[in-house]
Amino acid sequence: MSSTGENQPPEPPLEERGSIEKARSGNYQVSIGSILSEAWDKTGGAKWTIHLAMAIYFGIVILLAIAAAIPALIVPEGVFLEIIIQLAMMAITTPLWAGVYMIGLRRSVNAPIRAGQVLDYFNVTLPLFGLYLLMSILILIGFVLLIIPGIYLSIAYMLAIPLVADKKMGIWEALETSRKAVTKRWFSVFGLTLLIILINAIAMIPLGLGLIWTVPMSTIAFGILYRNIFGCSQQTLQSDTL
Questions:
Q1: At what angle do helices 186-203 and 148-156 cross, to 10 degrees?
Q2: pLDDT in tens, 70-91
Q3: DSSP letters along the chain, please?
Q4: Fewer Cβ neighbours under 10 Å: the N or C end of the chain?
Q5: CA distance linking residue 86 with residue 192, whole number of Å
């Protein structure tokens, strides 16, 4: 299932997209209204593809959780075994989450999308796993140190995973590139993230029906944010022509 070219908003000109150089110098803008407006426009024709991708993601997560429960029943006090299982689940789910993010990024530049792209990033499982593990440890340490550093790092590191998937950066390079770039507009990125969380929380009120629109919009919005800061690599654009 892929999006078509019908009724799509025009693709932003190259000069309006970010780059690593622009990001590092802080030469980009985060307009919350513009990002959400563009994301809403691009939700049409993409929402069911994104929902199917999310269904694949959560379906695999549920199957992993069921599989992980079996050893726990056999060895109920196996703490070491539990740690190994949790790490294995993290190694599988992190590339899946990267795939969801990249679908949003591809939609942000009107590249073709399909639900199966959620499975496309297992070729970078090791760096994604290492990055997520290190990022989680650093954020946890930040929360232990008076909470505020943890909140700062949670936002500052939020684009590290797509940097590995899109730019094929190393673990520390992706973390530091995301942190240094996001720090330039930290409060704007924080405001966008907070507003998206609020929108989805409100969308859950009428039996969750609003999530049909807000979840895809949120996915695309974060793709637009990444595009505006770092751009999108040609490899990502050319990785799927279906």
A1: 90
A2: 876 776 666 787 788 889 999 9
A3: -B--STTPPPPPPGGGS--HHHHHHT-----HHHHHHHHHHHHTTTHHHHHHHHHHHHHHHHHHHHHHHHHHHHSTT-HHHHHHHHHHHHHHHHHHHHHHHHHHHHHHTT---BGGGGGTTGGGHHHHHHHHHHHHHHHHHHHHTTSHHHHHHHHHTTTHHHHHHHH---HHHHHHHHHHHHHTTHHHHHHHHHHHHHHHHHHTTTTTTTHHHHHHHHHHHHHHHHHHHH---HHHHTS---
A4: C
A5: 31
The 3-class SS string of 36-82 reads HHHHHHHHCCCHHHHHHHHHHHHHHHHHHHHHHHHHHHHCCCCHHHH
Q: Which of 140, 133, 115 is nearest to 2 (CA)?
A: 115
